[in-house]
Amino acid sequence: MAHDAPPKSCSASRAKAQSNKTSPKQSVDSTLSVDKFSESSDSNINTTGSLRSSSTASYLINRSINQSINQTESESDLHRLPAWLKQTRLWLLHHVNEGDSVVMRFQSMCGIELIESNVTQSVNAPKNESQIVDESIHRSTTQRYRVTQPVIHAYFTMAAAMGNELFYIVFLPLLHWLIDATLLRRVILMWLATYWVGQCVKDLMQLPRPASPMIAKLETHYETEYGFPSTHAMIALTMPAAALRLMHEQNQSTHQSTPWNLPLAVVAAFIWTLSISCSRLYNGVHSLVDIIGGLFFGSCILVPVVFLSQFFDAWLMHAPPHSIECLLLVSWTLVALYPRPKRWTNCYGDLTIIIGVATGVFISVLATSRTRQWQSLAATKDPMTLEFWPLALARVLIGTTVLFIVRAVFKAACLFFLPRLLLNDYDSTSKSQLRPDRIYLTEIPYRWITYSVIGFAAIDCMPRLFDLVGV
């Protein structure tokens, strides 16, 4: 098989620092930019359909491309870190940069063939892209790559989706509607704690995601976020573990003996965790160090949160109604204490969504725990009977449709009114031109309000609607 020649012209120049006082240790953080990157020839691309054969030379040259962190921005954010944490960050940064080769090998093993890495557009690129592109080639903003193993691609795409915030926002209400309301309360507390810790560490440490142009970026949503630790890996570990712990408690409290349930659930949880973690390597958005860090932080918070969740759930079910004010204060405190960086990242916005959902859920439990006792469908209908599934499907369709309508209405209303109320010059300023602090001023309230309403509607309003329509 013919191999592509290494790029003929590829030079790197150091980014300008704010001052000349950068120490040797600080120079590890310096960001390098690529002046020019071009393929050796289009015929080589046609012959091999891949740039993997030149990955060694290109990787050594371009490994230092670290566009996720700008030096001048990082210096103003990182000065607040204590000395030992700065040293830890430098050590992690070295291993993160060295880990790009692991991501490249994993993608190659799973059938991702990088065809073109457009750090800059090649002047010799054909005008008619059909000359080198077929239907199996996918596009991102800067790259073209071919998927040669569609089954593996579908599997890891699904696994990555099961770690996203939107998945849990849709999935968690189903626990309340169909399975067990107690499970929802326990799991959503773990969801909140996991993301708060993970996102805070990300924006404190400000470590880059894999930056080599030889890595195919299959996801672009997280390009504005830092990489360490992987919150997908954290949530993939903590959420199933919290569910397993509750399952064990319920089996003990009811004195049920189901020897196949728990082992089967443990195996399913292990496969869940492994699949979501590996999907981050496959999509090229995390290094192995990010994933190990995510599993480490997830393990650290797992036992304390599982222990505290029992007491929190008991308090939630018996607290007086005026405790709503306490929940609101805690919610706003979690938002305010977040170590937001000077530039906008999706970390803060996504975490605010999760805080909002949890706030709405817990407030609805406080407001309705004494007035009405809601039972999930599994408590009244046996899931092993045919009677269960039509009702379950009806609840899923009605519930998710209404929640998406609520989201659309409140999102539109918040994005219309909040900028006009909070920004004096909104009419003459587009969002892309706003300073980061002004983006925070509008985006954070909009997300908290919208998703708090969604959480409340899912737990309080939807059961009333189900009773009304008879499902």
Describe the 3D structure.
The protein is mainly α and 471 residues long. The strands form 2 sheets. It has a 3-stranded antiparallel β-sheet. Helix 6 crosses helix 10. It has 16 helices and 5 strands. The protein has 2 domains: 30-149, no CATH class; 159-469, no CATH class. Helices cover 61% and strands 5% of the residues.
How are the SSEs ordered, and which strands pair?
Blueprint (H helix, E strand, L loop, with lengths): L9 E5 L17 E6 L4 H7 L6 H8 L8 H8 L4 H16 L1 H10 L2 E6 L19 E3 L3 E5 L2 H12 L3 H15 L1 H25 L25 H24 L6 H22 L5 H31 L5 H13 L9 H23 L8 H4 L7 H35 L13 H34 L2
Antiparallel strand pairs: 1-2, 3-5, 4-5
Helix pairs in contact: 6-10, 7-8, 7-15, 7-16, 8-9, 8-11, 8-13, 9-10, 9-11, 12-13, 13-16, 15-16
